[in-house]
Structures are given as C-alpha cells and as structure tokens.
Amino acid sequence: MRRLAAIVSWVALFAATGRAGDLDASSLREEFGRWEVQADAGKGGGIDAICDLVEGVVVFGTRKPNPGHLYLSEDYGATWTELPSPTQNAITCLTAASRDRFYLLTDHAEVFGTLDGGTTWRLLRGAMPNRSRVGAAAAYGLMFTPQGTLLMSDTDSDGGQVYRSTDGGETWTDLGIVSRDALYRFMRVGNAIVLNGFAGAVYKSIDDGRTWNLQAQLSSSALFATEYLGGSYVLQADQAGRVYRSGNLGETWEQVATLEGSADDFIDLGYGAVYYSTYTGARDVYLSLNYGKDWLKLGPLPDSGDDDWLDHGIRLNAPDFVVAIAGTLKGRIVRNVVGRDRLRVVAASEQSGGAPTPSR
Question: Would 172 be classed as within a structural domain?
C-alpha cells in the first residue's frame, strides 16, 4: 500500500532506540508527542467521526463549518481520497460491519448505510427533531455490535433514548428513555456495551443493547471521553477533568486523576498505554502507560494555537506497529506511529516501576 514501506522504516527506527531504563518524562513527551499533522485534511470541517475498516483502511467524516464530507485512506491514514457522501449535514459518528459495509450518523439523527465501501449510500433512518436544549447535535452515538445489531442514542434533554435495529437499519425499535439527560457514545467493553452522556452517568447492557441499567453515577458533569483498554480496564472522564477507572469491566469505579481542561476523548494504544485529550484551557494531550492510573502532560498538538484540539481518535492495528490517528476541531488529521515491540517495552517498564512515574 502507498507509503507503507516508509511507515515500516520509521517504526523500525524507533523500535531500535531507547531502553526501558532510559525513560523519563522528557523522552516520553518527545516520543509520544511527535504528531504527524495533515493540515486541513477535512477541508475546514471538524472531524469527530473516524472509523477503522481494518488492515490499514480508515474513513472519517466532517462537521461544521464544512460538513458532510467523507474521506478514505488505505495506508493507515498517510493519504486520503474523498468518497461520495449521502448528506450535507454534519457527520457525528461512523461504525463498521466490514471493509465495505459501514454506517454514518448525522447531527439530524439520520442513519445512512453503504454496502460497497462508500460508493453508494441509502438512507436507513430519517431525520428526527433535535430535542437538545444545550446546542448539541441531535445524536452522537452509533454502534454496530458483534451480534450484528445497530444501536443509536439521541440527545433529548428530557431523557436520552436508545434505538435498536436487528435488520441492518431497515426497521428500528425505540427502547425509550435510558438516561435523565442526553446520551453520548457507545463503547464495547468485553462482552457488554457501555454508554455515557450528559448526566455524568454510565449505563451498561449485557444483552446486545436490548436493556440498559444505570451502572454508576460518576459525576455531576457530562461524560464524553470513554474507552475500553482491553482486559478488565475501562476509562471515563468528565467536563471537570476528572478521570475515572474501572478494573472490572465497569462494575465499580474509582477517580484516579483530576487533570487540567475538560475531557474530550481517549485513544487506547494497547498494552496499557492510552492518550487523553482536552478541549478547554491549553487543550493538552496527556499520556498514561499504566491503564490510566497516572498521567503525563504532553502538551497541545503542534501548531494548534488556542482554538484547535484533538477531537476524536482511534487506534489502527498492524502486525508490527500501531497508529494513533485522530481528527481535530479545525479539520486536521494527526497521527503517531509506534512500533509494537517498543510500546511493549515502554508500557511494561512503567507498569513494573522500572521507569519514572509520569507526573500529573
């Protein structure tokens, strides 16, 4: 694939440098804060919807001020081509069943689906009234579950609702109010699904989204950042900068940190390493190497000024490296490529106490 050889060479260089004993805060900032920035990748539209289509194929969609555009990469986000788009509305979420079959959600709560990799699209669920009283989009959450179910959540300020389809979006069942306030995003957690939102609470389903239970009332502030780190670890963070961690798949939670700025997103890198981004204050990115227990401030994204930040990101997996890839409010794509062997060494060293613990 295009530029793949260059990516592999870059990873090989970093995999060969540094030993566990060499780690300190400065070297961690240098290595994990070295973002490759693709300026204006979204042609001015904010990027809060990005989805892994496996084997280096990834797609993103744009929001205002240039909404409704779709871009596809087949080389782990190194280069992009524009796809036909079915909408001029903001794209708030993307979810995939396979390389060719994926779905998008708009700020009008419309759901569109493609069966041919984005060449053609079909409207599966029409627009619905936006009942958010705080200026949010009508919907942010869309998930294709391992059982083949589509789930959507809305932002009704009088009670966030969940909608479920078991036939590829042809028909939908309204499951009713799940939360007393707007809902945000779904996250697969082991064999279950968790859902967070504006009420500061976490909801959990263990039956493929049929029923939902209040799992924990973590905060009085909205929860947006959500991530599953593999094993039994789950993270949530709120607008006040409080980070919560569960070591048992969301059954119980503890607050592990309070960081500067409001939480926006996490990006799991694997092996206990995870990024955390903020959207107020300095718009810093943080790094944890021990499943969210301790955090190191990496600083803001390169050339971000005072009005851009890491809005939403994911991990792309390759045999020898991982790619943290994210979109920003101003429509940039940022990436950091880390060799798997290197990541294992760094994370294992931190978790065993062999390297200095990052300061908060």
Answer: yes
